[in-house]
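User: C-alpha cells for this one?
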Amino acid sequence: MEHFRSAHAETGTPTMPVSPAGPRRGQVVTPLESAERLRDVLRAAHEIEADVHNGYGLALVSVWVGLVVWCDPNRFWWRLYWNAWQRRPVYAHHPVTDVTRAARRIALRYADLRQAQALCDPVERTGVAP
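Assistant:
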C-alpha cells in the first residue's frame, strides 16, 4: 500500500512506492498521510496504539494523555515540557522524511509519560458509577 504520493500524482505520472522510512525528497505528503504512517510505525515497531485525527490543514496523532503529535507536510512536532522560566511549552520536532526515527523519539516520550503516571497517587473512587 502506498502511503505517500509523488508531486506529479495530479498529472497521472506513475509513482514509486515509498520506503518504510518515509517519503523521498521531492514527494508531496499530506498531513493525514504523515499521521497515518506515524501511527502504523508506532504500532508495528513499538506496540503503541494511537488515534489519527485530520482537519484544517493539519493531522494529529493522539498517543497518550499529554502526548499529541501534530503533523504537517514537512514535520511532526510534540510537546516535551513546560518551561516555567519562559512561561511557555518546549516542543520537539522531526521531519516526516524519517518516520522511523520520529516514532522512536515519540515512543521514548510515551515511556516517560507512562512511568510518570504510574508514580502518581491513584484517584480515589467516589462511589459514582462511571
